[in-house]
Structures are given as C-alpha cells and as structure tokens.
C-alpha cells in the first residue's frame, strides 16, 4: 500500500503526526535562555525527541531535575555501552560516576555522534546539576551510585539466569523508576510509590528494549552485548548469536515469544503503579513509555524481523499514543487493544 493509501485507510494517522510536529516545534522554541540549560534541553531533544516532548508539561523544577537525571543516565550508559573502552578503564569510571557529576572539571571522551557531544560537554550537565535543589541532587546521586556499581558488576558477568536478567534490568532501569519516584516525591506533588512497583515499571521498559534491540546488540563492534538470559535461549540454540541465522528461524521465534511472555509478568505492577499517580502531567510522562512498550511487544511477538532488522512502532502510531494517552482509562484501553493483538498471534 502506498503512503496515500495508508493515510486513507487510517485517516487518524495524519492528524496526530501533524500535532506531534507542531508540539515538537513548540518544545524547541521553549528552550531556556541560560546557555547551560539551553544546552541540556537541546541535547535532550537530540537524543530523544519524544522524551523531550513529554516532559514539557511538568513543572519547571521537576522538569529540570528529570532532564538532568536523563542526561546523566545517558552519559553513564554511553560509558557502559562503549565496547572499545578496556574493562580496567571502564569499571572505575562507572563506580565513581556519582562523584564525577559534582565535578565541573571531570571529563571522559567516549561514545559517538550525539553521545560524544554529551560526553565532551559533560561539564555543562554538571553545572546545571549543581543548580538543582538538594533533594533532587541527592536522589540523582544515590541512583547513579547504585546503577554504576550494578553496571560494573555486569561488565565481568554474563546474564545466565532469569534472576540475573531481572537483577541487570533492576540496575539499568528499575533504579530509574525508584529515582523518578523520589524526584516526584521531592517535587511534593506525589506520595512516594513503592520500590517494588517503581522497579517493575522500569523492568517492563528495559526488557522491551532488550528484546527489540537483539540484532543491534549482537552486532555491536568490536564486541557483542548480550542481555538475553542463557536460561531462556539455551533451550533453543547453543549460542545466542545463532538466533540470527536463517536456518534457526523456527527456534528464534519460539525463543523470542518466551522472552516477550517473560516481560508480560510486569504488566500487572505497571498498571498498579500508573493508577496511583494523581498528578496528570506526571501520569502522562509515565504512561506514554508504558503504552509504547506494550505496543512494541505486540509488534515483536512471533515476528522474525526482530532478528533481521529493527522492529519499531510507526511514527504515526507513536504520535497517536502521545496524543491519546491522558487518563488511566486510555491506558487500560491501549493495553486491552495491544493484548488482543498479542492474543491473536499466540
Ligand atoms: C526513562 C523512562 C521512563 C519514563 C517515565 C517513567 C519511568 C518509570 C520507570 C522507569 C523509566 C521511566 O522512559 C524512557 C523513554 C525513552 O527514552 N524512550 C526512547 C525510545 C527508545 O527507543 O529509546 C525515546 O526516544 O523516546 C526510557 O526508555 N528510559 C528512561 C531513561 C531515563 C529516565 Cl529519567 C526515564 C530508559 C530506560 C532504560 C528504560 C529506563
């Protein structure tokens, strides 16, 4: 079907995309005038347009804290992800990262493209961090410390069991949930959510990323990154990379389906977490990534293309999710629709 055909068949797609573009333009115009904040927001915009968009509705203080938290985590992630850094250099940086954020003179060049700019200009992020309220700073420091230590642990350790998988996802995403709950609480608009529910919310997002990014991670140069737990893939193949070869297509899809099923365990907690967020702006900020995740899982299930290229939600669908996710009823509706799609594939 041509693009006009697609639009005519789904006329709803055109309008949300247009609205998304207008909102993105509006967000760009809202970039603050102080140069260090302008840098942080334009950096955020470059690394994740939709994230930059969705945080616009938060109050200024909380929005600034979330922006800096996101950039610090991206920087930490850039160090963890860069497979060209030797282990003996990488591990000490990860472990001390929570101290580097206070040091305007600290610098470590790594990563590529936008992430290289972020690393090279990290002192600008530090400058903005030091302007946040103490409560925000302490929450960000605490999470950065625990995450860096967890990442360091997994540099030298493979993800063997499902427990390892949950532990790794806790460090890189569950802790983000705990940190955000602390930031919401520090902004005084929200009661502190339970750690267990905040953790599940992060696990659900990260497991979705790990499933979706199989090929990208396995093809990483100079060394693959492997996050799928051996306890699951060893039922289907001898080596994780074997899943990408055409002769193993049947096993690959079966393994993929088991991975998707594993991530669905967290849906219950995610819905509970979201239903307890009374502040509308915070609610939308949390709900949009969750709806995107269940949508991505529904697309990935039984889909061999996960092993051939990138499986992503279409831009029009993303735009719809952003504009239609306003209340808990919208979230239940979206989870219901994507669950029906999953069910039809099982
Ligand atoms: C996030 C999360 C995020 C947002 C809201 C509530 C959360 C509660 C618990 C845990 C994480 C929460 O959302 C972003 C969304 C995002 O960046 N999406 C990308 C899409 C993509 O493919 O990367 C985009 O371009 O829009 C998220 O994925 N993570 C994240 C990081 C920092 C913060 Cl402060 C919030 C990353 C991760 C690893 C899933 C936690």
Automatic annotation (TrEMBL):
One of its GO terms (biological process) is lipid biosynthetic process. It holds the Pfam family SQS_PSY. The keyword Transferase applies. One of its GO terms (molecular function) is squalene synthase [NAD(P)H] activity. Pathway: Terpene metabolism; lanosterol biosynthesis; lanosterol from farnesyl diphosphate: step 1/3. Signal peptide: none annotated. One of its GO terms (cellular component) is endoplasmic reticulum membrane. Keywords: Transferase. Its EC number is 2.5.1.21. Its cofactor is Mg(2+). It catalyses: 2 (2E,6E)-farnesyl diphosphate + NADH + H(+) = squalene + 2 diphosphate + NAD(+); 2 (2E,6E)-farnesyl diphosphate + NADPH + H(+) = squalene + 2 diphosphate + NADP(+). PANTHER family: FARNESYL-DIPHOSPHATE FARNESYLTRANSFERASE (PTHR11626), SQUALENE SYNTHASE (PTHR11626:SF2). Catalyzes the condensation of 2 farnesyl pyrophosphate (FPP) moieties to form squalene. Belongs to the phytoene/squalene synthase family. This is Squalene synthase. It comes from Populus euphratica. The lineage of its organism: Eukaryota, Viridiplantae, Streptophyta, Embryophyta, Tracheophyta.
């Amino acid at each position: 079907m041509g693009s006009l055909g697609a639009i005519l068949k789904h006329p709803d797609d055109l309008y949300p995309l247009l609205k998304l573009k207008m909102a993105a333009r509006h967000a760009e115009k809202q970039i603050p005038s102080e140069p260090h904040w302008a840098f942080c927001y334009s950096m955020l915009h470059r690394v994740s347009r939709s994230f930059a968009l969705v945080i616009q509705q938060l109050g200024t203080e909380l929005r600034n804290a979330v922006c800096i938290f996101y950039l610090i985590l991206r920087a930490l992630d850039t160090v963890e992800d860069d497979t060209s850094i030797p282990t003996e250099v990488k591990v000490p940086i990860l472990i001390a990262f929570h101290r580097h954020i206070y040091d305007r003179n600290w610098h470590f060049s790594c990563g590529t493209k936008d992430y290289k700019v972020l690393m090279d200009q990290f002192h600008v992020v530090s400058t903005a961090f030091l302007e946040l309220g103490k409560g925000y700073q302490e929450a960000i420091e605490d999470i950065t410390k625990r995450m860096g230590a967890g990442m360091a642990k997994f540099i030298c350790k493979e993800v063997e069991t499902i427990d390892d998988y949950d532990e790794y996802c806790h460090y890189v995403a569950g802790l983000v949930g705990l940190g955000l709950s602390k930031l919401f609480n520090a902004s005084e608009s929200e009661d502190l959510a339970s750690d267990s529910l905040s953790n599940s919310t992060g696990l659900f997002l990260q497991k979705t990323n790990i499933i979706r990014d199989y090929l990208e991670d396995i093809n990483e140069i100079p060394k693959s990154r492997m996050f799928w737990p051996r306890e699951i893939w060893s039922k289907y193949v001898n080596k994780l990379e074997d899943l990408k070869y055409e002769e193993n297509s049947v096993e690959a899809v079966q393994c993929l389906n088991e991975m998707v099923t594993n991530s669905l365990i967290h849906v219950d907690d995610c819905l509970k977490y979201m239903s307890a967020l009374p502040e509308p702006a915070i609610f939308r900020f949390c709900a949009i990534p969750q709806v995107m995740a269940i949508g991505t899982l529904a697309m990935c299930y039984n889909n061999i293309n996960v092993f051939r290229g990138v499986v992503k939600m279409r831009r029009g669908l993303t735009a719809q999710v952003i504009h239609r996710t306003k209340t808990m009823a919208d979230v239940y509706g979206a989870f219901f629709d994507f669950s029906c799609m999953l069910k039809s594939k099982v």
